[in-house]
Model the fold of this input.
Amino acid sequence: MTELWLIPALPLAGFLLLLIGPSLGRRASSLIGAGSVGASFLVCLFTAWSFAGKPITQTLWHWFTVSNLSVDVALRVDQLSLVMILVVTGVGFLIHLYSLGYMAGDDAFSRFLAYMDLFVAFMLTLVLGDTLLTLFVGWEGVGLCSYLLIGFWYRDPSNGRAARKAFLVTRVGDTAFTIALFILATKFHTLNIEAILTACQAWPVGSALAVTVAGLLLGGALGKSAQLPLQVWLPDAMAGPTPVSALIHAATMVTAGAYLIARMFPLFQLAPDVLQLVAAIGASTLVLAGLSACVQRDIKRVLAYSTISQIGYMFLALGVGAPSAAMFHLVTHAFFKALLFLGAGAVIHALGNQQDLFKMGGLRKALPATFWTFLIGSAALVALPPTGGFASKDLILELTWASAPGARWLWAMGVFGAFLTAYYTARMFALAFFGPPHSHVHHKPGPVMIVPLILLAAGSLLTAALDWPGPLGGAPFFSHFLAPLFPVSDAHEVSASLASILQASSLASALAGIVTATLAFRRFSPSVSPDRPSPLVRFLLSGCGFDSLYNLLFIRPFLFLTRLNRNDILDSFYTALAWVAGLFHRGLSRSQTGQVRWYAFALALGAVILLAVMVLL
Done:
């Protein structure tokens, strides 16, 4: 398979046709928007079918040569990128299909599908990039698309603020990533990923250079994957349409950070301190985000904090040296989180854009298909057997326990995170589907929205077979598939009896969370929900106060400096430029009289002047 360029090119072509092509009707826009991603998925399936275990590389063109640095635009498929492109296009196609029903009444329907296609194209460029610079193009591209889609309904100023916040916060991590690129290019005179990973093996373990580069790459990953301390943008990103939330959380942007660490994992292994930091950040993030999710009223914000928490599990696995487990959880999470967001979208759509959990209730009878598929997604999020979420989270916790005696506190945080996950998931499910109804159902989702829910629910169950726990009669197919990139370490093996005890512990923690939420269900009704929540609840509602902290440390000092520095000589220069531009605008606007005879005279006069100049020259 050498036509790898078709994989990102097809959704990119869909974007170009929808945005700058001729005006199209909704049916044609739907066909191009969803069809381009579906066609890309078919190419990915063919690539997977023809993949023989050896990496496939396709150089598209030479990009540039600067001094002794030469960079090509090249794509590469190996075990890791193959998994990613199947997830991005497969789950992405189902989200696109769902969008045809969810966004059918929107005036900017074609523009929405165009942005979604561009999002998928950039994510595919990111995961297929054979060089860090090609990867970085996709990396920045998904950042641009997140800005466009989070602020899609731009007439609401709050949406614009959320889009700018996402763009600016992720730029912090991107700056660190950029510095890492410069260091690697200077050191190795190449940005080819495989060449860098081979050359860096000459560095001593724990060397300052390895720690610096790994730390900078981690900074980039923290921004894109919304991990501490750069997680503040993701809850506000719920301002975009619900299919956007599903695409960001399940198949594209938020998974990019975990992918970057996995892709550069041999380099991270040379910096054990950075890997320990990755694990500590993941464990801390999954707990703090889980606590915040327990008190949210907006169903989409519950799922947003849930994503931050679940990505924390992926970082935990990466930090303890288990990248295969992290990628397995990425795959299962893609299915059940897309399912939950689209299920939440079906609820919001049915209730006339109502997102407050305390104004829902009783939907299990009104929306039976949504109820049952959402139940499967919730079970996968809680990590109940036999779902994929159970298999992947169980594997992460088992490998965390086995990684080192000092990592037991990380395992304990992971188990506590399982309790929190079960609590906020059961709370969300109970408020939405049980109890008395508090809102009227205006629209029931049609087949174009229900079919993706059913397929994602099936995926949430079937992905468990990829790496079902050995003590339960499974086999590690997924880990063995990734073994050429991430060899399975004997240090992570535990006995069957210990594995069973660990599974029972995490499952007991999840069941305790469900029981706690069930017992507290009567306190979830709006009639007893306090209008003035306690200081602790307000603290958790705010995402543990990080926005206020950053406002105090960065935004207020910056605004103070701008007020102190206003009306200086530099401001006068730019004010003068604006005044000159305004002067020209006022002069030129007077030429737009609306009189055809005046326009014809101006064209004729211009032609005469042009001919005269040509004759004289």
User: Anything to note?
Assistant: The CA atoms of residues 283 and 413 lie 6 Å apart. Residues 295-529 form one domain. The radius of gyration is 26 Å. Residues 157-188 form the longest helix (32 residues).
